[in-house]
Amino acid sequence: MAHVVVFDLETIPDLEAVSRMHGVEPHDDAQARGIVGEKFCKLPLHRIACIGALIAESSDNGWIVRSLGAPHLGDRSEADLIASFADRLNDLRPCLVSFNGSGFDLPVLRYRAMVNQLSAPGLYARGYFKRYSDDAVDLCDVLASFTSQGKCKLDELSRILGLPGKPDGVDGSKVAEYVATGRVQEVADYCETDVVNTYRVWLRYELMRGTLTPGAYDQSERDLADFIDARSVERPHLAPFARQPSSSEGSIGSISN
Question: How does residue 84 score in pLDDT terms, banded at 50, 70 and 90?
Fold first, then answer.
């Protein structure tokens, strides 16, 4: 396993698809919103607003973060977001890591590629849609031993493990509102924090099962801290993950020397 891609989607209702599904006027967004209401949409109706991804490469001393980003609808079309992500998977053929990816993110990617009439063979570069495969590790699923009663939320687990968790005042229920009001960059920033939390949970999982030695785990954490520290000025939303002078001075979720 040379590369791992930790990813997360943020989505909004596809009102045009809702209209087609229910046979209403195609441009009557108000009626489509009324149909959606407060319900959680069926997965094919989730238009992808943002794809957050962290790419890390294996080394003799752990994992090295190569990139972190969350391209979004403010800069690209949904089709381009999906195509670019799938092309990257095709190039790297990485292990995919997510939190609830088998139940949401992966099927949404597949549905939305079809809605956009895309050829996206990268989504099949490895056995990403096989639930029990190591090609795609859904931490929510795996850590609960594939049972519903064992599952918990990413924010809950992150905080239990001493990680920062989600930023205060932001959650997935606000994504559609933020996108509609031109705050899509804030959605992308929020998505990046989810990706970093997921990566750190995965590192802890790898340590637990012996795939990472304690030394390699510590080095992987230090590398992540270095990566974030080098970008702290332009990406202040990642500040909770930055290196602190000492564990006693930093927050419980900070990365210390």
Answer: very high
